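Dig into what follows:
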Amino acid sequence: MASYALNQQDWNALVVLRNDRNSQFGSFNNWSLAGGYHLTPALRAVGSAGTSFQAPTFNQLYFPGSGIATQTPQKNRAVEGGLKYQYGGVALSAIIYRNNIQGFIVPSTNVQTSRAVLRGVTLSADVQAGDTSYAVSYDYADPRSFSTSAADNNLRLVRVAKNVLNASINHRIGSVSLYGEAKISSNREDSKVVVGTGRELLGGYSLLNAGLTWTASKNVALSARINNLTNKQYTLANGFSTLGRNALVSVAWSM
């Protein structure tokens, strides 16, 4: 892999060239170009473009009953651009992206389609106000798969929600940090449990989590959190259940 970076007062750029050699699928050349330009001291325009590849996993190729040994690597061409704002304790970001994947492997069925298009927008905001920090992000995604079969053409990618909102608040009191988290997700599609019988709509959901972290010393931290406070019943993948209300306590020690 070779890379070259340029840095000036108002702009910067990074160029990367990479060669990957896979013993089963051969050699692949990929590249990426990323950069940013300060429109004002606080506002920056950013963008990137590049290619990549991903070889099928062992399970995708050979798992009994679902593996397909003839699968080929997925090849990706991606572009994204947006604006980032940073001033004092406020950080804002708006990014739009589009990825074209040749030979996309559908996660739920392991079928390799001719291509997929992943496109969407991510908006985020972070605010630091004294000992309290706030964060919120919104993701809109409309990924689609395309196939030579009319029945499987221009379908939503399975297990991906179109709209997801995340928000969190963290407050520090001395050596203790208290936090709360909220997540709201719209519905998603998934293959039915019996493969080959079409699709099913998985409902949207909302989650609330809360917890605290106590830094007992520079080497020891104690954490406790409660996930899914409202004991919401929801499904991320058809046929697989998720946890209801649950708690987690952990101790971390570092040198």
